[in-house]
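Hey team,

Filing this mostly as a record. A colleague (T.K.) asked me to run one chain through the structure pipeline before their review meeting, and I want the input and output archived in the tracker in case anyone asks later how it was produced. No errors, nothing strange. Just documentation.

Input sequence:
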Amino acid sequence: MSVSKTNLKTELVNYEWYKFITEEIEPRKVRKNIVDSWKRCKALGVNPYESDNVSVLTQEKLIQKLHEKEKLIKVIRPYMENLYKIVEGSGFIVFLTDDEANVLHVLGDQDILNDYSTGCNFKLGANWSEKCVGTSSIGMVLIEGNPIQIIGEEHYCLEQQKWTCSGIPIRDPESKIIAAISMAGRSENAHSHTLGMLVATEMAIENQLKIIETTEKLLFTTQHHKAVVESVSEGILSIDKYGIVTFMNESAGKILFCDYKNAVGKHINEVLDYEAVILKVLKTGKGYIDREFIINSKRGRIHFVKSAIPIVGKNGEITGIVDIFREIKQVKRLVNQMVGAHARFTFNDIIGNSTELLEAKRLAASAAKCTSSVLIMGESGTGKELFAQAIHNASPRAQEPFVAVNCGAIPRELIESEFFGYEEGAFTGAQRGGRPGKFEMAAGGTLFLDEIGEMTMDMQVRLLRVLQEKEVTRIGGNKTFPVDVRIIAATNKNLNKEIQDGTFRNDLFWRLNVLTINIPPLSCRNGDIPLLIEYFLNILSKEHQKNYTLCSEAMEILNNYSWPGNVRELENILERSVNFAEKDHILPSHLPKNILKNNRHFNKHDQIISLEEAEYKAIVDAVEYCKGNITWAAKILGIARNTLYTKMKKYEIEC
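Output structure:
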């Protein structure tokens, strides 16, 4: 009974197909999606009687396709092999195509493949789109995205109507169709279970693709996190609730003097040669942030700042600890960078060619090559810190901190804590966690003690002891910190006189006065003033986006000035003058009155101005009074119109 029904259905479909092909009559007894496919095939011009639309990739393009889909084929091949084992010997073919319907992989008995080649092309690279082969499971799956089974006369092309084919789409984890699988056999062997097997295979393949993608993402994330953790300078380690090391990065191994590669799986006390401080966190359950520790291990002294973060489980139990730490020298280096504890100037920034200055630079360059203490002497404003920074930058310590301290600017009650630091609770108002002093901050680098002559006698005693013993103890503490700093001191006082007066210690003087550099005052630097003026005006021109120049008379005035404030005073006066200059040409009237009073050209009265300045002022006043009428202004001034234009050009006066 079922056979007769099948034959009846086949005859009906065959009749409907014939009417559609020959008379374009809309089929009534055929599935709608099949009819839609027939219509598409007809619109595409597919020949229903002969396979003249066959398309096969070139060898070059096929190799490229197989290379691109290599990973996908590798995943799908085992599932296709399982399918084929079920239907092996029953006249079925299992084949895989890409999302463009190009055949990428085929499984089937060779005699069946040869038989199919007369009506169906299963050659690698053959295209199974509707445009090439008409209605087929592959073509419809790629268009509609749903599993489908096509039997006999439902095919659009006559040559394929003796076959049945079932197809499924393969989607990636983002639900995009990336391939299709079809199982084809003789139409009399068609069975609904075939499509069921394919749908189950589809689900298995897509689940496998999701697992692979998730695994790859987890692997990438793990590798990414590992790369991040390994690249940081901080030491990072973690332990479980039993104290077993679960992770340690390379930086942690270097800081703790241990083998980080073999640490995982061992108890933390087996890895270290001292009692691990984080074990206390396991007992108390209380972590901490940025706490300073000093540990004397058998392998060396460890001075670091660390944070211990407890890992809390669902029930509130501590399940482990994450320990993050960095060496104190790294912390200090970072702080010094943030607060500007580095030298900016070099010997190239010391401007001047006078004999006195060149001799000071020569001595300073020699001092840079050794590690002895340096005493820089000179009047205020001569550039003592400039020399100190240049010495530091030319020394082997150039990459280390340069910490400057003005001994005369620190209040007496704070000077000791500034120099030597303090522990937490050392006095009222002490910072939580304590604070390192300037000696610790300058570790490995240079400590510049400016205005050393202003230091109190009791502080001089402490300083001398540190220089002799090369270690400091913080206020309120009992731990000593090694001192590895180079001392450069500076003063504008006569320390020999201070020693005679009993305000400066003789032994400290000889401790500091290993190498002495005397910086000449500006008044003794013959020929350097024009060079300094040019240097500072270039800087000011860049800041104000102008091109400042100094008239010859103003230059002569500055050359003849005594400069009690030295280079600092010169820089100050030039900055003041450019702010008063109407244009970018500095005239004598733009200079301070005290300089004009002390100049021999202006010793009669400080209101006397030069002819050039008077002419400039007269022209500006006349042009402004005449509201830019040059003819009228020239008449008032009593000069020719062309002469006025010439003078306006000279002084850069605009209407």
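Quick notes for T.K.: The two ends are 114 Å apart (CA to CA). The chain has 26 helices and 21 strands.
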